[in-house]
C-alpha cells in the first residue's frame, strides 16, 4: 500500500526490511547504527563535526570567562565561523531524529527505553561526578553550576530540568530536550509505528510545535519543544527517505517544512546572543545562520541519499563513540586549562592543547567508563525487565546523537 508517496512496510522491501544490528562489536557499547549489514559510518563523522563545532564555539566564541575578554576578539580571523558553532547542537538534534526513529521502529517501548537509558547514563553519571569533585574540591571557578549536594544528586537523574534545578554541566540542557523527545517517541510507539502513522505523528507534532511557538503556552512549549521539534522531525523525515527511497514525496514535504521552521528557530537562538552582546562581539549575521542551517540539512540529505557512503575509514567509528563524553566534559577541561595558561601560551596553541586534552579524556572515558558501563547497565536493565531475546532475533540498537 502507498501512503502519500511512501511505500508501506510490507511493500517496501529492500532496505525497509533488512536493517539489522551487529551487536556490541562495532563500538563496544552495544549501541551501533547498522542498516542492511552496513554501519552508517557517515553518522559517526557527522557526530564529530557537531561536537567539534560546539567545542570551537565554547572555546573561541562564547565563553568570555575563559579569556577574560570576548573570545571573538582573541580569534577574530575565525569568529564568523566559531560563532556559528552554536548550531552544532542542532546538527545533533537532526541526527537524533534520524537514529531514534531507526532505533524504535519494530521495537517495544521497554526495549527502546533500555536502549536509551543504557546509552545515555553511564558517561553522564561519570560527568556529573567529575563536575561535582572539580567544583567542590578545587579552586576552579569557570562554569561552576553552584549547586548544593541535593541538586547534584538530582542531576544524576537527568530530570533536574523538570524541577527547576540548574544543570551541573553547561551542555546538559540539550539532554533534557532529548529526554522529552524520547518520551514523545515512546508514546507514539505504543500505537505501533508504520509509515502512515509516522507521517501523521510528524505532521501533528509540527503543527503543535507551531502552536506552542505562537501561543507560548507553558504546557505546549514543555511538551512539544517548539525551538527543537523541527530538527527532530527533519531527522525523522531523512530516515524515511533513507529507508524507503528518495522518490517518496511526503518525507520531502516534512524536510522542507522543518527546514523553514529550523531557520526561524536558529535565527531566534543566535539572534538572542547578538542582541545581548552585539554583532561586534558575536559576528553571526542572519545570512550566516541561513548558510549554517542549510549546510547541516544538506549533510543529512547526504546521509539519506547515500552521498556520504564513501566514508569507510574505520577509526571514524571510535571518533563517533567518543563524541558523547567529549560533549559532556569539554567545557570543564577548558575551565581548568585556559584560565591557568592564557597569559603564558599563544591562544591558538592553548586552544589546540585544550581540544587535544578534551579528546584524550573523552577517549579514556569511552573506553574505561562508557563502553563497559553501557554493557553492564543494559544487562542489569534487561535482567530487571525479565526479557530474553530469541535466538537470532533482531537487536537493532542505535547510538543516540546527544549533544
Automatic annotation (TrEMBL):
Enzyme Commission code(s) on record: 2.3.-.-
Highest rank taxon of the organism: Bacteria
Coiled coil feature spans: none
Keyword Transmembrane helix among record annotations: yes
InterPro entries registered for this protein in UniProt: Acyl_transf_3_dom, Acyltransferase_3
Residues passing through the membrane, by range: 45-63, 83-105, 117-137, 157-176, 183-207, 219-242, 249-266, 289-310, 322-341, 347-366
Molecular-function GO terms, alphabetical: acyltransferase activity
Keywords: Acyltransferase, Membrane, Transferase, Transmembrane, Transmembrane helix
One Pfam family hit: Acyl_transf_3
Domain Acyltransferase: 41-367
The keyword Acyltransferase is annotated on this UniProt entry: yes
Residues annotated as signal peptide: none
Protein name: Acyltransferase family protein
